[in-house]
Amino acid sequence: MQNTIYGMDLAKRVMQLHWVDWETGEIHRKQVRRGKLLEFFVNREPGIIAMEACGSAHYWARELRKLGHEVRLIAAQFVRPFVKTNKTDAADAAAIWETVQRPDMRFVTVKSEEQQSVLALHRMREQLVKIRTMQVNEIRGLLYEFGIDLPQGREKGLKEFPEALATLEGRLSDLALETFRRQRKRLEEFDKDIADIEKRLTLWKKNQEAVARLMAIPGVGLLTATAIVATVGDMKSFRSGREFASFLGLVPRQSGTGGKVRLLGISKRGDTYLRTLLAHGARAVVNCQTRNRNPWIDELRSRRPHNVVVVAQANKMARTIWALLAKNRQFDPNYKSTAVATA
Questions:
Q1: Membrane-spanning residues where (predicted)?
Q2: Can you say how many angstroms the Cα of residue 330 is from the centroid of all Cα atoms in its chain?
Q3: Best exposed site among 38, 181, 206, 208 by fewest CB in 10 Å?
Q4: Separation of alpha carbons 168 and 143, rounded Å
């Protein structure tokens, strides 16, 4: 007997289901309220449930797996071409049902609660850093209106902040000066909150042997290693290092016709946060070569622009990360791959 395939469009309150009875060929469309969803599926025979990889998808995937169902998460851009009519919940559910049956479809790995918890720390830290940067730029811009030019750089600028306020005493009202001082205290709170999150990530790292192995790679630090392990989970879901680099958007876009293929700039698909971390780490490796210079980087810099070299190094780091996690290896800076001879 063939397992029933369900296409489910997620929402905050009402879920839309679409499935076909294989025995009769009858098409079913049903709306189920959030609180009744698990009750509906617990009374159904185990089947395949497909959803878009959107908000709350990983939670529902974990819960439905506990009921014995097989869950497949699909990236939203793969579902869109199968929407036949206007975008409605019913049309989306039908498109998901259609998409999951494609033989070459790729699916998103379901994340555990631990993985999502670590990623939540990363998201909160990222937001705090953005707000802190906005606050510093605002203070710099406001003081510039009064003839104060703080040095470039967050730490250098804030170091001279008290002296800058002292020069403005008597020129600005106490109301404005006190507000500036409160903004400075708020920045100190941001620094403390960011440091606390990084301490929690360090504690989590102690129980993750994979994170320690990744941090041995030049350019891979605490944030990059913990984010990759939490995002990917099982690296064997990628068939090769190039596929993992493609997942991160670090490979060229292709445009071809008539048998001719042109390679363009990097695709920038996938997880922007991971790609940013790898790019920053790669830039540090390229810019900070002092001892034990890498001949590969030097040769590449002699014929390619600086940013191209940085992206190439980020791509190389991604492939190295895949090799360490997928093949359970330790990082060896002197490792050389050996080509397998074929008859």
A1: 210-232
A2: 24
A3: 206
A4: 9
Q: What distance in Å separates the CA atoms of residue 262 and residue 266, rounded to the nearest whole number?
A: 12
Q: Which two tokens stand for residue 136?
A: 């510093």
pLDDT number for residue 1: 54
CB 87 within 8 A of CB 109: no
Q: Tokens representing 14? A: 């009402």
CA 175 from centre of chain: 43
| C-alpha–C-alpha distance, residues 37 and 63, integer Å | 10
Three-state DSSP string of 88-136: CHHHHHHHHHHHCCCCCCCCECCCCHHHHHHHHHHHHHHHHHHHHHHHH
Domain 5-99 fold is Nucleotidyltransferase; domain 5 (3.30.420)
How far apart CA 242 and CA 85 sit, in angstroms, is: 36
Paired tokens of 292: 């034990």
Angle (nearest 5°) at CA 22 between 18 and 25: 75
Distance CA 91, CA 73 (A): 17
What pTM was estimated for this model as a whole? 0.87
Q: Where are the domains of the chain?
A: 5-99, 113-205, 209-326
The answer to whether 283 and 301 are in contact (CB under 8 A) is no
- 200, 121 contact by CB (below 8 A): yes
